[in-house]
Every structure is written in C-alpha cells, then in structure tokens.
Design a protein that fits this description.
heterotrimer; A mainly alpha (433); B alpha+beta (187); C alpha+beta (578); A: 433 residues; mainly alpha; two-stranded antiparallel ribbon; 21 helices; globular; C: 578 residues; alpha+beta; 4-stranded antiparallel beta sheet; 7 helices; elongated
C-alpha cells in the first residue's frame, strides 16, 4: 500500500508542475528507470492461404472422385478417397467449412443482403453442385466428410422396405425447408447446431451432441448412411442436380444382362429394378391417375401453405429470442422457480422485459409468411413424390437411381459384365438407340 | 435416331443453362463476397460473465486472457492478480486466478510485471473483472486464432449476454485495446 | 476395371482370418465400450465437483477475508485445498484428452477389424429367383399410401401443436417501460417534494413548498422543534427524503455519514466510510474554509450518497446498509474538493474538477459501476444543477472559465459558454429560460436558452460586473435574479435586461446560498441570521429571525419546516401555532 500511496501522492504533486496530460486510466504509465522494455505481444494469426489450399484440395478430390467413379470403377479407390476426405476435411479442418452448412451462408447472403459470403464458402457450395450436374453425386461418394464417416461404419447394412424409405426420404426436404426458414427469419444456423458428426471431428462437443453423433454412427452400421439419406439438406440439392447429370455412374460397365446379382448389393436402396412387364392398370388408367394428381397438386400445395401459416407460432420457437421470451414469461408467471443460463443472462443485461416481448412478437410475426412458403414447399414435394410413384417409366435394366445414388461403387464388384472394347455402357446404349 | 439426338441436345442445353445460372449466382456472390471472417471478442463490450470458458466447443476454451503491457500500470497491488482485501503476498489465498495462470515478476520499485501463462489460462475472466473495476483494464479476453476452429455459428457468440462477439476480417484477427482513447466507456 | 477373376476373389471367404478379425473386433469393442463408460463417468464427476468453483474453498476464502487478523492455519488450509483443486482440474483435463484419444484409437481398430471380418465372410451373391413383379406394384402402392398418410399426420400434428400450445407472450405496453426505465427511482414530482441535494430539487435554489416558517429565535428556542449536535464537522448542507435527514462529517482521519429522524432529531444511524478500494492512507491537505466534508450528500429513492475530500464515495440505503463504495482518486485541489453530488434517473453524477484531471463521472446508483466519464478542462468548486427544457433535461456545470451543459444520461456535451473567471464556487441559477451565473473576480452573466429550433442555442444576453458573490450561489425567478455577496450585499437585477432593480446592505456576509420559497427569498448570513424578503421590484424585508450560531451551509425547506446546519448543530425549525 505504501508504494501505491507514494505513487498517488507523487502523481498529485508532479502533475500540476509538469502538466502531463494523463489518459483516462486510473494508474499512469510507469516510467521505468532500470531500462525495462515492454515485452512484445505475440498474437498468432491464422494461417493465410488455408482457404486456397482447401479449395484446391476440394477440386482435386472431386475430380479424382469423378474419374474413379465413372472411368476407373474401383470401389477400393473410392473408399480410400473417402478415408482421406474424412481425415482432411473432417479431422484436420475440423469439419468446418462444410458444403452442407454452406447452404445457410448462401441463403443468408441472398435473403439478407448485408452479409457477404466468403469465397471459400461459395466455392464449397457451388463446386459439388456443378460436379453433380455433370458427373452425378460424386461429392457424396468420397469427398463429403460426413458421408465418409458413415461410409466407413456401414458394415452390416440392411435393406429398408420401399414404403418406409419413400416416407423417410421426405425428411431431408423438410430439414432443408426448416433450415432456409431458420436463416431467413434470423433464427440462426440449424445445420451447425444439429450436426451429429462435427463433435467427433473437433474432438470437442457437448454431451448431447456426442450422444446423438454416437447414435448416428451406431445406427449407420446397420442402416447405411442414415444422415445422408434421411436428413442431409444439401443432398436434396445434389439429387436435383444429379437427376440431370450428363454422365452418371452405372452398375454395369456395359450393357446390363439382368442377371439380378446386384439386387442386394446396394446398402442405400438406390438401385432401380426393371419394371415388370405386366402392369396392374392400363396405360389410360395410369394417365388418368397422374392427371388427377396433377389436378390436386395446387390443392395440396395450398393446404401445405395454410398449415404452415397456421403453425407459424410453433415454428417460431426455433428463434432464440422467442424461446427466451417464452421462458421469461413462464418465469414471471411463476411456472419455473429457477433460471436457465439464457434467462439469467437476459436479466442481468440492459434490455427490459417489455422490450423483449416486443422483439419476440415481431419475430413471431416475421415467421408467418416464410412458414406459409415452407408449408407450400412441403406440399409440392409430397405431391411430386406421389406423382413420381404413379408415373411408371419403363425400365429394362438395373440402374442406379439418379437422385439417390451416392456413387459409392459397392455394386461394381457384383456385376459380372465386363467392359467390352473399353466402351462405356451409356454411350453404347445411346449409339444403339 | 433423330429424336434421341434431339433429346440429348436438349438435355445438354439444360445442363449448360443450369451451370450458367449457378455460375451467375456464384459471380453475384463473389462480387459481394468478402475474404473469410473470424470470430472475435470486443473487449469494450465484455462484461466478464465467465461464459467464454464454459460455452466454447473446445475444452479448454479458445478464449484466453492477455495483458496489454502498454496499458498495464505494473501496480504492486494489482486488482487483477490479487483478491480484494488480500495481503500483498502471492499465496493461493490471495490470488484471484483459480488456476494460478498469472505470473508476477518484480521489475523495479514499485513496479511488477504480470504475465498470463496461456497453457494454464481457461478464459474465465475473473482477473479481467478485477482489472476493469479497479485497475487500468489491461487484462482482457481474446479469442486465440491458433486455437479457435472458426465455427460457422460460434457457441460463445450465441450465449454472450453482452453481445460482445462479432465477425471481423481474418487478416485483422484481433480486437486489441489501444492506449489512446477519448471518453472511456467502462463497465 | 476388375476382371471376373478378381471379382470372384472378392467373394471368397477366409475362415481363419475372419476368426482373427472377429476376435480383435470383440476385444477392441469391449475396450472402446469400457473407455466410453469411464469417460462419461469422469465427465459427470467433474461436472458435479467443479474444482475451480469449489464451494468449500469459496467459503474458506470468505472466512479469511472476514477475519480481522489473518489466521495462519486457515491460510495453510486454503493453500492446500487450492492446490488440490488445481491438480484435480488439470489432471482431469489430461485424462479427458487421453481418454478421448484412446477411445478414438479403440474405435478405429474396432472398425477396421469389423470391416475385415465382414469382408472375409463375404458371400457371393445369388441371383434371386422369386417373381418380384407383384411385390413391385404393391410396394409402390403402399409407398404412396404411406406418404399420403404421413402428409395428413403432419397436417394434424401441426394444427394440434399450433392450437394446443399457443405462444403466451404478455402484451405489455412498451411506452410504459420506456418512460420508467427504473421503476424504483423517483420521478420529478416526488423529487421536488423532498430536498435531494444541494440547493434543493434540481440544484438551482428553488423550493417546492411555499409555507416555510418566517419567525423563530435560536436563543429562546421559540419555534425550534429540535436541535442536535453533529458529531463531526462539515460544511455540507442537509438533504432530506421523507422522514430522513442526512449529513456527513469528517476530520482528517475519520469520515462518517449521519441519518436523523426529521420529526424528533434522533440519530437513527451513523456509519463510517473507510477501507474502500483505493482509499489513500492519508487524506490530502485541505483549506480551513473547506474542510474534509464539504460536498453535500445526495439522496435518491432509497439510496444516499456521500463523497469526501480524499475521494471516498459511498452509497448507503436509508436503513444504514452500505451498498457500495469506492475511491474515485485523490483530487488535486488546493482548497479541497467541494462540488456536491446530484443524482438523475439511474445515475449518480459527480463533478470532479481538479487541477490535473477534471472530469464528470457517472455511476450506476444501485451498483456503483462506472457508466461513463467525460473529461473536462478546468478546476471548479461549484456544484451541478439540472434543468428541464422542452428538449429534455440538461445538467449545468460551472468551472473556472466555462459553463457547460451535458445530457445527464449519456454525458454528451450539449453546449458551452465561456463567460466565467477566477476560482468559481457559486453554482448556476435558473429562471424563465435563462441561466444565471456569477463569480467574484469575473462577471455575472445571463445565458438565454433558445430551444425552439430543435437544438439548444445559447446567448449571453447581458453581464453585470459590480457586486459579485464569492461563495453563495445566486438565485433567479422568472423576472429577477438575486446575488448575495460575502460582504453582505444583496442585489436584485432584472433578468431580461440586467438592470439593477434594488440592492440592500446587511451586516454580515453570505456564504449560504439564498433560496426561493414561494414569493420570498430566504438568505442566511454567516452569523446565523435569516433575512427573509419578498421577491419583486421593491425591497420588502419580512423578517430576520436569529440563531446566534455561525453558519455557512444552505438550509433545506420542506413542508412547514426548515432544516438548518450550523457549524456545530443540526436544527429543525417549525412554527407551532400559539
């Protein structure tokens, strides 16, 4: 204390004389007599150019993957590439930036013009889609770290029945819609919050995140790629692109001979069998049915929009302000006696409760229209699925489903057909036609 | 044969069109695109709530305390190092830091140097609180770029009661306190 | 590009290899499972224990802090516990890390061995021979049914959720919240009915109650309700809230705050102000005429604030509990710090103008947290006042050269007029739309405020350089302003033109500031005689009741009472009906 007092008295005495203008700090800058110098602060900056390397690696692995899937056709190489991606994009780069999450950044940039999206995120969004447009879902095969993890653990996959798979395949659309809804209304990034595998990549997460991730991995042993097939919102976009791809992976390297050996080879249910020749209904009947479905599509869409709008308050709960307001209101009414971390933080801040309520109400109101769009989107998707299941497309060969096939290449080894004259199956078919 | 060729040509056209559209969106995005951004804590807004140490997805947290030597007063009775009312010794009962991460070294009378050992620091902010209240505010928290994994949505940012986290350009990296300021805004 | 032979090889099984792989899988699986369970248990334990926030340790530290003399044994105990806690924390971190890596390794080995085991058991595909066509159509139909069913279920669930769990956010009107940011703090009407700071509500010398006594006698005790000795001296004036009257007193060594009951004069509580963070060991030198407790206290809602010559600033509630306290820094002031405190809404405003680091500081009244600090330029001994203008409240401060106005919420500077000089002790007066300031060795200036244009425009409309005050602050009505000088002269000036309307010489000089009570002015001279005269163009003396005790402070005027502090006593004057 003595030295402090001396210091302060010295300050009081000398300040008037020297007229030194002191800053607003309580204690003045020390004047060292022993020649002591302030040590330099050494703050590490992130490695510059890390983004460039990532983009380059992405492009290379995508190209390699396309080559292996379409030309080289070796399941082992595809698997090795997947392991590499899991290690590089997953454990080394900690799973972030990832293409799945980039959807949110792009949506945010489109809807909310203020936020600009970094180049690397944009590249991670666009490049796999472009490759899918030309080569099919080669991204899923061996580039996506999430897919790679699931690919590694898919050891004893079982086949799911067609109806179950059809219904579950609606979930990614709902998740995509929900993600866009969440970003558009400012409720935050859902994909990042509920990514089951990023905890493993980071080697750090909350207990619940590890639990969910663990459940997905264990489930993935028996149900192939559960996240990819039944949750991934980016997969929806990829499947759209892949449906129109110029080249796509084929089961048979040349003409299919319908030997049926590949029927049980796909762990992801992505093989389309040839349509049986005997049809239960006539063509005319089939056309009528499709006509009917097309007619009620607007009704289904409208029903979806109305349901979405009606349940906008429920959907609004994804918004953190709305959640907080609900919690504070309940605490004020006496329903809860203790506080959560969030409510405690709020109460120690400057915002008043009526202000919070006003913000929450504004946020809830802001959900009305986007929820209607979300509902309409789901309505169209359901109608589309029904139409797709009704419209029978005559197929004579065993083909990989253009939308669902992730180009993993497990089916290659099951097909006895060998390449003849080095000509690929598709081109040969086209020539034959 | 003609039909199928027409079909193929149409398909190709659609593919090119889609690719062009995607390229257009990408171009529009790139024009607005920034370099990458990273998360950082604004020390002027921080209220030293302690959530930096608990909310980070990494364990231990990527947020560490740093001491700005230009601002530090080198005080004998450092309010960031010693508990209020503590005697002037360096025993555990007097230290504020729960992991004893601040190391004190005598320079010359009456100045002591305070260095934060980052291996030990957990980013709890107790020393920051003491220094901001009664000292110069030279101890403050910052996200270390070599530790942070730059999540798309930072968990600490979500939980910060003072909304002190924001994205800054990666080249800037840190929001450092400077010693030249006008009217200070202290908490 | 696998040839048929290679493909066949793919489906061959290798029994011995498979057994080995399975065995390794079982072992690594068990290992991983055990490590996983251990990790979970460890995490749960750490969460429950929280070594860095151990309650026992906290309690021991508190004990040590409370003990007047450091207990060696306790110190040792704390050190030992702290070491254990830190060890526990860091070893737990290391264990978690190692456990995580072990788990990762175990899982990797498990996966590899499982894959190899599956590979070496691989069975070649057998072409199915059942007819799948019926199944094909049936499964297609079932898929459609299921999808339709799921869609309907979704709609029902969504509607149920929407109607059964409505968002119950109460509709609290926002306006209400805005106007009363801190519901506990008194509004202007309540403030006016008390005496919250130096020179009354707002600090510009105007009392709310107009029924103050006009006749009393100190020697005989006529109309003196009570008279109590104040333990320590101080030149601060009394402040009153409800039935509580507060004073502070100090010597070089001791600083105290006193709370009296206004009806009986009983000392309800007294509290020392000491050992605040930053309190210097020795108080600075002060002049005899200033003393160690010159600044008047402020009382705001249930909180009372006091500041002393050594920079100690403390807050007590009206029951005597110290809420917070800190030392704002020893002032570099050759006479001693004397600017009084004033509070507005949720902030305590401290004018701390000294020779080296003049500033205006704002503290949160509840916690003492610093809200903002604004640097200023010159030294001052006057006190702040705040006035209500059509554009909002403005805080007016006098200093050696400038008169400054600030926004009391943010500290933003609204306007400045450079019209003073000398060592300024008198505080600003306010009447009509004019601010009136005066000081000996300078001039008296009338600053007219024009708020019609959306911002405040100021203009010094006239100045007066004859009789000027040294200590006592002037006071103004809508028509006139009054100066009381240390020589005993009181001058009345026309507030529009600055023309002298009248002046009167009294025997003794004035240190106490004259106060406007209704249509009268109460001016207390240094000998303790109160000169009461009517406001207006004619000088009309109403009375001069005596106390026969020297005074330098400014009294408080409440409903039918005057509270007056002399050099030694605090006195309550009330006219009892005879």
């Amino acid at each position: 204390m003595r030295v402090l007092r001396t210091l302060l008295v010295a300050l009081a005495l000398f300040s008037g004389v020297t007229g030194v203008a002191f800053s607003q700090f309580r204690f003045p800058m020390p004047e060292f007599e022993s020649g002591y110098q302030h040590p330099q602060m050494h703050l590490p900056l992130p490695k510059a150019g890390a983004d460039l390397i990532d983009m380059a690696v992405l492009f290379c692995v995508l190209s390699l993957s396309a080559f292996v899937v379409l030309k080289h056709r070796s399941r082992r190489t595809i698997f090795m590439l997947a392991v590499f991606s899991a290690l590089y994009f997953g454990f080394w780069r900690k799973g972030c930036v990832c293409s799945v999450g980039s959807v949110q950044n792009v949506v945010e940039a489109v809807i909310n013009g203020a936020e600009a999206v970094p180049v690397v995120v944009l590249v991670f969004f666009v490049l796999p889609l472009l490759f899918a447009l030309f080569f099919g879902r080669v991204f899923c095969a061996s580039v996506c770290p999430l897919g790679a993890l699931q690919e590694i653990v898919a050891i004893r996959p079982i086949q799911l029945s067609r109806p179950v798979e059809a219904v579950l395949s609606l979930v990614p659309y709902a998740y995509l819609g929900l993600t866009v809804l969440s970003v558009a209304t400012g409720a935050g990034f859902l994909i990042c919050r509920y990514d089951p595998f990023v905890g493993f990549f980071r080697l750090g997460a909350s207990f619940s995140m590890f639990l969910v991730g663990g459940i997905f991995l264990v489930a993935g042993v028996f149900i192939g790629r559960p996240y990819c097939r039944f949750l991934c919102p980016y997969g929806v976009l990829l499947s759209w692109m892949s449906r129109f791809s110029k080249w796509h992976v084929t089961i048979a390297p040349a003409q299919c001979v319908q030997c049926r050996l590949c029927e049980d080879s796909c762990p992801y249910g992505a093989i389309n069998t040839p349509t049986p020749e005997d049809r239960p209904i006539t063509r005319r009947e089939g056309a009528k049915r499709i006509g009917f479905l097309l007619l009620i599509t607007p009704l289904i869409t409208a029903l979806g929009a109305w349901t979405g709008s009606a349940s906008h308050e429920v959907l609004a709960r994804v918004h953190p302000t709305v959640q907080l307001a609900g919690r504070i209101a309940a605490e004020e009414r006496g329903i809860y006696s203790d506080m959560t971390v969030a409510s405690e933080a709020f109460r120690s801040g400057d915002k008043t409760i009526p202000e919070l309520y006003q913000e929450a109400r504004t946020a809830v109101e802001g959900f009305r229209h986007p929820s209607a769009w979300f509902g309409a989107f789901l309505g169209i998707v359901i109608a589309g699925k029904l139409i797709a299941l009704t419209a029978v497309r005559g197929r004579t060969d065993y083909e990989a489903d253009r939308g669902a096939c992730v180009s993993c290449g497990r089916c290659f080894v099951y097909c006895p057909v060998e390449e003849e004259n080095g000509v690929k199956g598709e081109q040969e078919k086209a020539v034959r036609e | 044969m003609n039909e199928s060729i027409k079909k193929i040509r149409r398909r190709d056209f659609m593919r090119v069109a889609t690719a062009a559209a995607a390229g257009g969106i990408a171009w529009r995005g790139i024009r607005r695109a920034s370099g990458s951004t990273v998360w950082q804590l604004d020390p002027e807004k921080c209220v030293q709530c302690g959530r930096c140490s608990t909310h980070c997805v990494l364990n231990p947290s990527a947020v560490k305390c740093i001491n700005s030597y230009e601002i530090c007063g080198y005080c004998d009775l450092c309010p960031g190092y010693l508990r209020p009312g503590a005697k002037l010794d360096t025993g555990a009962e007097s230290q504020l830091c729960p992991v004893s991460a601040i190391k004190r070294k005598f320079i010359e009378d009456p100045y002591f140097q305070y260095v934060v050992d980052e291996e030990l620091c957990v980013g709890c902010g107790k020393c920051v609180k003491g220094c901001a209240r009664f000292g110069n505010g030279s101890l403050y928290l910052q996200v270390k770029r070599d530790l942070c994994v730059d999540c798309n949505e930072c968990e600490i940012a979500r939980g910060c009661p003072a909304e002190a986290f924001r994205r800054i350009p990666a080249e800037v990296g840190y929001l450092l306190k400077t010693s030249q300021k006008g009217a200070s805004r202290e908490t | 590009m696998a040839s048929r032979e290679n493909k066949k090889k793919r489906f061959e099984s290798n029994e011995s290899a498979r057994r080995l792989a399975t065995a390794v899988a079982v072992v690594s699986g068990l290992f991983s499972f055990i490590v996983c369970i251990l990790l979970i248990a460890h995490c749960a334990q750490m969460r429950a224990m929280k070594p860095l926030d151990d309650p026992v340790l906290l309690q021991l530290r508190q004990q040590l802090a409370d003990a007047p003399v450091p207990n060696e044994e306790l110190v040792e105990h704390i050190r030992a516990l702290d070491l254990l806690a830190r060890k526990a924390f860091f070893t737990s971190q290391a264990h978690l890390r190692m456990g995580g890596h072990l788990l990762l390794g175990g899982v990797v080995v498990l996966l590899i061995s499982l894959r190899l085991s599956a590979r070496w058991r691989a069975r070649p595909p057998v072409p199915g021979d059942e007819d799948l066509s019926k199944e094909y159509w049936r499964s297609g139909t079932r898929a459609k049914e299921l999808i339709a069913f799921a869609g309907v279920l979704l709609v029902i669930a969504a509607l149920l959720a929407a109607y059964m769990t409505p968002m119950r956010i109460p509709d609290l009107p926002l306006k209400e919240a805005r106007q009363v940011p801190a519901v506990k703090f008194p509004d202007w009407e309540t403030i006016r009915q008390n005496w919250p700071s130096f020179r009354g509500p707002g600090g510009y010398g105007v009392a709310y109650y107009t029924n103050a006594p006009a006749d009393w006698d100190g020697e005989s005790g006529r109309n003196i309700r009570w008279k109590v000795e104040v333990p320590l001296p101080g030149f601060n004036s009394p402040v009153v809230r409800g039935d509580r009257l507060l004073l502070s007193g100090a010597t070089e060594e001791i600083r105290e705050v006193y709370c009296y009951n206004t009806d009986t004069g009983e000392l309800v509580w007294k509290r020392p102000v000491e050992n605040l963070p930053g309190t210097p060991e020795k108080a600075p030198e002060v002049g005899e005429d200033t003393g160690y407790a010159a600044p008047t206290m402020a009382v705001h809602g249930d909180l009372a604030f006091a500041i002393f010559a050594n920079g100690d600033l403390a807050c007590f509630d009206l029951d005597g509990n110290q809420r917070w306290g800190l030392n704002v820094g020893v002032p570099d002031n050759h006479y001693g710090h004397s600017s009084s405190l004033i509070a507005y809404e949720s902030l305590l405003l401290v004018q701390y103008d000294d020779n080296s680091e003049a500033r205006l500081m704002a503290f949160d009244v509840e916690t003492g947290a610093r809200a903002w600090t604004v640097p200023r330029k010159q030294i001052s001994w006057s006190s702040p006042a705040y006035i209500h203008t059509p554009l909002g409240v403005q805080l007016i401060l006098n200093a050696e050269e400038d008169v400054d106005a600030y926004d009391p919420r943010s500290g933003a500077l609204l306007w400045t007029e450079q019209c003073l000089g000398g060592e300024v002790a008198p505080s600003p007066a306010f009447g009509g739309s004019t601010i009136f300031v005066a000081n000996e060795y300078a001039v008296a200036s009338a600053i007219r405020l024009d708020t019609s244009g959306g911002t405040t425009q100021t203009e010094v409309v006239w100045q007066w350089d004859e009789s000027l005050p040294e200590v006592a602050s002037p006071v103004a009505t809508d028509e006139h302003c009054y100066i009381a000088t240390s020589m005993g002269e009181i001058v009345c000036l026309d507030i529009e033109t600055g023309a002298k309307v009248w002046s009167h010489e009294f025997d003794k000089g004035f240190y106490s500031s004259p106060i406007l009570v209704g249509d009268r002015i109460y001016a207390l001279d240094r000998a303790g005689t109160m000169h009461i005269f009517k406001t207006g163009a004619q000088f009309e003396l109403i009375g001069s009741p005596k106390l026969a005790e020297p005074t330098a402070t400014t009294p408080a005027y409440l409903d039918r009472r005057i509270y007056l502090r002399t050099d030694k006593h605090i006195i309550c004057i009330e006219e009892t009906s005879e």
